[in-house]
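Form 7-S
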Amino acid sequence: MILVLSTYRTGSTNLCKQLAEQYSYENLDECFHESIADKHNNIVRYISTNPNCVVKVFPYHLKQSSRENLLNELVALSEKIILLIRKDFDQQVKSYYICKQTGNWHNKFNDTVDITLDKDMYQKFTNFLHNEYLELDTIRKTIPNHEIIYTHQLDQSKKYVRPVKWDRQPGFTNIDIEELFV
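Output:
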């Protein structure tokens, strides 16, 4: 199994697709999403008997899982572990906010979408994503053999294009994510 550890809005969906294609593996994508925690036991069993797959997990998924040692189990089943990091945290937060506002996580849209800025909610999402990276850094320190890939190193041709019009610009989020992972 190839395990991709990341956070929201990093290009992890496209990375998983690319890895599955490159290795001719099944792409299980976000199979440990918190909304299907009741299926995590079955998924671990499936992966243990079908190791030719790609799985992505976010720290939030691990915290919400019904399996206490999910990370350790996945690491033990992994032949390769990749941490995917997006350096451009400001754009990541904007993308996350847009997805939360529109409910559209993976589809392109051509028509401009109006986005209303709620500064408190924007700050909440900023803190959430920053905490996800802090968790990911803690996880990284426990995994001896891993590879770090930065989003900008990936093929950007499949990047979502989503024209939006903000009622007010959210301002710049100046958090250097890369410094956590050096």
